[in-house]
Amino acid sequence: MVKIAVVVGSTRPGRRSKQVADWVLERAAAKGGAEYELLDVADYKLPLLDEPMPPSMGNYQHEHTKTWARAVAEFDGYIFVTAEYNHSVPGALKNALDFLYAEWNNKAAGFVSYGSAGGVRAVENLRLISGELQMADVRAQVALPFATEFEGFTTFTPSATAEENLDVLIEQIVAWSTALETIRH
Questions:
Q1: How does pLDDT run along the chain (185 residues), one tens digit per residue?
Q2: Where is the NADPH-dependent FMN reductase-like domain (predicted)?
Q3: What b/e string do you get for 115-150 counting C-beta neighbours within 10 Å, with b at 16 or more?
Q4: Going edge to edge, which strands form the sheet with 135-145?
Q5: Model's pTM, two decimal places?
Q6: Are the beta carbons of 11 and 18 closer than 8 angstroms?
Q7: 161 CB contacts (<8 Å, ≥6 apart)?
Q8: Is 185 helix (H, G, I), strand (E, B) or coil?
Q9: Where are the chain's structural domains?
């Protein structure tokens, strides 16, 4: 059975991404088809990229990078939960992605985003980044606008449409993670 990480992509105090990620994790676990686990970027306290060699060389020098690499390598696919900051991804998520290379390769990526416009511009950026990291991004996406999915911009309350969209995303991420297994091994 494939293992999928639900990646919490914001480290900001008062972040909404943990609420959203908990919802994704709960719904995915109920749906089944894979093992699911939360992977919170905040737990790794990564500094700004400080490796002297490019990640594509796989020659990690720092223990924080090695720890992050071991955590990321465990998974066959990822559902990234991201906010949209200034039409892009949170800096902490971009930094966490940039630290590694081979650990992301030949794995599936799906995106759940939130923001004033549902976070769609952050996902546009993530699709480009994931392609460079040799991840296969699935078509389904969950976009959560503050106006309709958050009470008072703080409390996450998913709509029926968001739940339906998440179900499709989960099905696609499991299918692609499974299909890419032959390439990974």
A1: 999 999 999 999 999 999 999 999 999 999 999 999 999 999 999 999 999 999 999 999 999 999 999 999 999 999 999 999 999 999 999 999 999 999 999 999 999 999 999 999 999 999 999 999 999 999 999 999 999 999 988 899 999 999 999 999 999 999 999 999 999 98
A2: 2-148
A3: beebbebbbebbeebbeebebbbbebbbbbbbeebb
A4: 35-40, 3-8, 77-83, 107-115, 135-145
A5: 0.97
A6: no
A7: none
A8: coil
A9: 3-184
Look at residues 62, 29, 37, 55 and name the one whose alpha carbon lies nearest to residue 167.
Answer: 29
**Residue 44 CB neighbours (<10 A):** 17
What CATH architecture does domain 3-184 belong to?
3-Layer(aba) Sandwich (3.40)
DSSP letter string, 84-146: -BTTB--HHHHHHHHT-STTTTTEEEEEEEEETTTTHHHHHHHHHHHHHTTEEEEEEEEEEEH
Place of tokens 């993670």: 177
